[in-house]
Design brief:
By secondary structure, this protein is of the alpha/beta class. It has helices at about 5-15, 20-25, 45, 50-60, 85-100, 130-145, 160-175, 175-200, 205-215, 220-245, 260-270, 305-320, 335-345, 380-400, 405-420, 435, 445-460, 480-490, 490-500, 505-525, 530-555; strands at about 35-40, 70-75, 75-80, 110-115, 150-155, 275-280, 280-285, 295, 325-330, 355-360, 365, 430. The protein folds into 3 domains: about 5-80, Arginyl tRNA synthetase N-terminal domain (Gyrase A, domain 2); about 110-260 and about 305-360, HUPs (Rossmann fold); about 380-555, Isoleucyl-tRNA Synthetase, Domain 1 (Orthogonal Bundle), CATH 1.10.730.10.
């Protein structure tokens, strides 16, 4: 039962207002003030009365209903008190019968969402700076899947450009096949950093790098052979990290895929009268839109990032016919996306409005941004290892006889990092504090995982694998039980909101609310020693919590070990 919509239906009958408008106005009041509240402020202009008088008038016309226990007017609000028995029974039975499908919907049916995320640069290490795009994108991917969309996850690899010319020069001057085969991406990173150090005193090295890029563009066999080798080495490194994060992609089409697709796009921009010359370069003038010009071609005829992004967007629209195409990158790329989105718009494509840049704050480690050029990087693998080692130490201290300790430590350590990243609005910066994020108390991933494991333990102790939905809901209408059901029932709305706002933290916050509500329920209700009917009903709540925690933590990419 959709209780908000049902409440809105009662108000609609009493007012002749549009039910969807009423739904948008309904609020969740403070505890003790009812379960749903309809504010009457906006009606005062239309009805020409004080909001509190309007509330009294509407309330007097609301029909009695089985699912409403009481209707009270408080100032300008009409407060609705739900029949707890009907509410609890509806929520618990739905979870038991639908299981993980309880949180799913068909809002996105027959619509495709493309998400461009992670997108590390080939031949550079996967560092902590790649984490945010990767886990935010993965979570949104899962959220849109739950909302019924067809989702395409694209890892737009940085596998082309001047950096490869630099790397080839560095390899030929200071590298060797043996060293690269032995140390793989660490060696590539070492010689890449050395190139930049040497180029500060010897700028001619940059000319050599550009010459090698031209060779790549012209199909030179040696240049392309080295490029492919560097790509293969990098993908082994990236896939090792993705495996630990349990992340996969539907497409790995990187920048190189669009090499033969840019010339037609440049010609189209020119034919539409948008291309202008500026100091030898070709630009689209965006002064009218309070933006710097968007560079399309360099003075030497080379393409730039906007050229490639425009070509990629047109390809994706033609190939996937997306409802939305979402780009998950750092906040400092706002201008870049605004510029080429506007170029797409000026080209006459009405789907420019469906391109969405979803920016995020940075991971900071005390001294600012991370830089591959200077060699100052914190490798993602090192961060994961550190978290897992700390999780293992906690497990050894708290539960040394736990089976599969290594697997649980991996799930807890990696889960703690992901949950921490997704617990606040994506625009906020993330500062790692391992002691806090690995705590089993507070608003953390381990706390959520431990709550799930507690639910599993209760069911196991009771000898229950599956719970019968035929329960006496009148036995579990106490405040703690009712609050658990309310939090569970709000998940569908929260998941939809997370998709609309591109904010996974809305789901992670709701998960913590469920954990708090469940632990309060657990502390206030004796489950194992209660009478049979009461025990059965309370175990149904435990089963519902277990089911919802499992399915919603999956939306974040966090695993749920059954023992901790």
């Amino acid at each position: 039962m959709d209780f908000i919509k049902s409440v809105a239906g009662l108000v609609a009958k009493a007012t002749n207002l549009d039910i969807n408008e009423i739904v948008s106005l309904i609020e969740i009041p403070k505890q003790g003030m009812g379960d749903y509240a309809f504010p009457c402020f906006k009606l005062s202009k239309v009805m020409r009365k004080a909001p509190n008088l309007i509330a009294e008038e509407i309330a007097s016309k609301i029909e009695k209903s089985d699912f409403i226990e009481e209707v009270k007017v408080v100032n300008a609000y009409i407060n609705f008190y739900i029949n707890k028995k009907i509410y609890v029974e509806d929520v618990i039975k739905n979870v038991i019968e639908k299981k993980e499908k309880f949180i799913e919907s068909e809002i996105g049916k027959d619509k495709t969402i493309v998400i461009d995320y992670s997108s590390p640069n080939i031949a550079k290490p996967f560092h902590i700076g790649h984490l945010r795009s990767t886990v935010i994108g993965n979570s949104l991917y899962k959220i849109y899947k739950a909302l019924g969309y067809n989702v395409v996850g694209i890892n737009y690899l940085g596998d082309w450009g001047t950096q490869f010319g630099k790397l080839i020069v560095a390899y030929k001057k200071w590298g060797s096949k043996e060293a690269v085969e032995r140390d793989d991406i660490k060696e590539l990173s070492r010689i890449y950093v050395k190139f930049h150090d040497e180029a500060e005193n010897n700028p001619e090295l940059n000319d050599e790098a550009r010459a090698w890029l031209v060779k790549m563009q012209n199909g030179d066999e040696e240049a392309l052979s080295l490029w492919k080798w560097f790509c293969e080495i990098s993908m082994k490194e990236f896939n090792r990290i993705y495996d630990r994060l349990d992340i996969t992609f539907d497409s790995y089409k990187g920048e190189s895929f669009y090499n033969d697709k840019m010339a037609p796009v440049v010609e189209e921009i020119r034919e539409k009268g948008l291309l202008k010359e500026s100091n030898g370069a070709q630009i689209v003038d965006l002064e009218e839109y309070n933006m710097p010009p968007c560079l399309i071609l360099r003075s030497d005829g080379g393409t730039l990032y906007p050229t490639r992004d425009i070509a990629a967007a047109i390809y994706r629209k033609n190939h996937y016919d997306f409802h939305k195409c979402i780009y998950i990158t750092a906040l400092d790329q706002n201008l870049h996306f605004a510029q080429w989105f506007k170029v797409i718009d000026l080209m006459g494509y009405d789907w420019a409005k469906d391109l969405v840049h979803t920016p995020f704050g940075l991971v900071r480690l005390g001294d600012g941004k991370l830089s591959t050029r200077k060699g100052h990087v914190v490798l993602m693998e090192d961060i994961l290892n550190m978290a897992v080692d700390k999780a293992k130490a906690i497990i050894e201290e708290k539960n040394p006889n736990l089976e599969n300790k290594d697997d649980v430590a991996e799930a807890v350590g990696v889960g703690a990092i992901i949950f921490e990243d997704l617990f606040n609005s994506r625009i906020k910066n993330v500062v790692f504090d391992f002691d806090r994020m690995l705590s089993f108390e507070g608003e953390t991933g381990p706390y959520a995982q431990y709550t799930y494991a507690r639910a599993c333990s209760i069911l196991k102790k009771a000898g229950v694998e599956n719970v019968d939905s035929d329960i006496n809901a009148g036995l579990i209408t106490d405040e703690a039980s009712f609050n658990v059901c309310k939090v569970i029932n709000e998940f569908s709305e929260k998941i939809q909101e997370a998709g609309e706002r591109y904010e996974p933290y809305i789901v992670s916050r709701q998960i913590i609310e469920l954990c708090k509500a469940f632990n309060k329920f657990y502390n206030e209700n004796n489950i194992m020693n209660s009478e049979d009917d009461v025990k059965k009903a309370r175990l149904a709540i435990v089963y519902a919590v277990k089911t919802i925690l499992s399915s919603t933590l999956k939306l974040l990419g966090v695993k749920t070990p059954e023992q901790m």
